[in-house]
Input
Amino acid sequence: MIRAYKFLMRPTVGQTIALGEMLRDHCSLYNGALQERRDAYRHVSKTSVKYGQQSAQLKEIRAFDPERQGRWSFSSQQATLRRLDKAFQAFFRRVKAGEKSGYPRFRGVNWFDTVDFPKDGDGCRWDSTPHDPVARVRFQGVGHVKVNQHRPVVGKVKTVSIKREGRRWYVVLTAEQTEPEPLPRTGSVVGIDLGIADFLADSNGAFVPNPRHGRKAAAKLESAQRALSKFPVRRDRRTNNHQRAVQRVADLHRKVRRQRLDHAHKTALDLVREHDFIAHEDLKIRNMVKAPTPKPDPDQPGAFLPNGAAAKAGLNHSISDAGWGVFLTILHAKAESAGREVIAVDPRNTSRTCPECGHISAENRPTQEKFHCVSCGHSAHADTVGALNVLRAGLVRRDANPA
Output
């Protein structure tokens, strides 16, 4: 199995400048390759340029511009071109599927924050010993950079990446490992229901409160964004005050993101340790946070009828703040490492079905929290009922498809 590690780097002032130049030059390569593809399609009889053709030009590009392109790793530049090729593949896939196409765009220097090295030892070298808190990673054109290794890297390092987040620099490693030993069996099964009022309710009647990290930081973030908006659009963009305002907003967003990740990791770890089998709803989060379709007013051309967009925007913000997608991704990863089984089930009618008699009706849920069956009179918390139905559906699916 492949596991990723992310460590904070401690570059010197000179190394920080070199890392920034590496991102800038790879960004220039990415944009130049994108421009070549655009020009070839528009002006040369709709000719498509492939990755192989652009990769073959790298030798000439490096010889023509040795100061900006020739000093960096050849493999990392190939990875940048491959990254553009994947963007075009995704674009054509969306076009064929009839989705919103999203043509690949040019990247600004501040929006290009990652450089990949496909192989450890080719343009980069991870150098550390187990349980050594200070490791080093060497990059071609930069040198040996100190790394805060907060946990040992297990297995053989396969790829290395540089990532910039604000003023901080991180190294991301992927290591190939043997299958870990599964956790001891507990004999427990559970279904979970994700929500807004409570982050999670399980089939045993327990609840995990929703921390609402984004809402708690909203006042500070609003103040920081207001201070940033005071700078004119075309003036004072490079002053120290502007840079501090940008950094303040970035720091607040990073803090919320890390808090959300921490909560997701701890919640998922508790579930994996306590239960052998976990069932959850197969939520289509991307569809859930879409804005409602505008409703044109037939009596007034150019006008629109009320469609609840304001209320839906608030719900979308709460869903995004809860971080369901991040949590489910982490839950599946931890379950795989621990030898647990996680199954996603159809979420339809899970909160409207009575767990006692099986009656399905929208009237069974008169309020957000209350469930009262109109057929047999069974009453319980609506989220607990949903978790029970999710568990039963998950067990049925597991038994129908034995491993």
In short: The two ends are 19 Å apart (CA to CA).
